Hints:
Rossmann fold
Amino acid sequence: xxxxxxxxxxxxxxxxxxxxxxxxxxxxxxxxxxxxxxxxxxxxxxxxxxxxxxxxxxxxxxxxxxxxxxxxxxxxxxxxxxxxxxxxxxxxxxxxxxxxxxxxxxxxxxxxxxxxxxxxxxxxxxxxxxxxxxxxxxxxxxxxxxxxxxxxxxxxxxxxxxxxxxxxxxxxxxxxxxxxxxxxxxxxxxxxxxxxxxxxxxxxxxxxxxxxxxxxxxxxxxxxxxxxxxxxxxxxxxxxxxxxxxxxxxxxxxxxxxxxxxxxxxxxxxxxxxxxxxxxxxxxxxxxxxxxxxxxxxx
Length: 299
């Protein structure tokens, strides 16, 4: 009789994200927080602006997380985190990690000024953007993180978004911060390692986490993790690190790059696209991938 194989745990068993949260089924942002806090531990303060996680956490005075949370204005995640860090240092606490945790709307758009200011000053905070590619909390409106071709409530089918996604990682690299990285909820070990590394770095750190949203993407909840893998394999969202804006390290080298078609088919937000539209998207992905490879090779 064959013995059953035991699952090997590769992440700590401690949980800082508990039950009772208000996330939708298949929410990528929920998984992102869970894995991230495993790396951070209990000595963490979260500064959360208006975003899905401002709701997911639960109604006051309850919280599904076991670390302190400071809810702040939509545009102020980075500046609030800077203030919290300064306050902790004034009372002699230099051990607690202060984290600005925001969605793509509060990062790419509304919060970009505060984030840029913190990065230029190299404030000692860790900024995390969980990217679900639209303003999901307020009704699925387009953000500058929304990809070309996507349906949102403000870019309906006949007028879908025809601008490419903003390259937030290039913007952050231009600030030459000590450490930044991309991560996906479908590669938890990679996400954990990068969060752990960022925790140990002094200065401004930036993590960009791919977090599928079944509600806004019109995809099945059970496909969230699958989408998080596919986006790496087709090179739409490569996994890499940047140190001081110059040293690029590719974490997963994709040898057999997949076309984007199957990825798009799983999401209703792209159902209206025609072959010519998909070709435009594929060419953009190919250009971005080639550009990233050159940067990694030159590092």
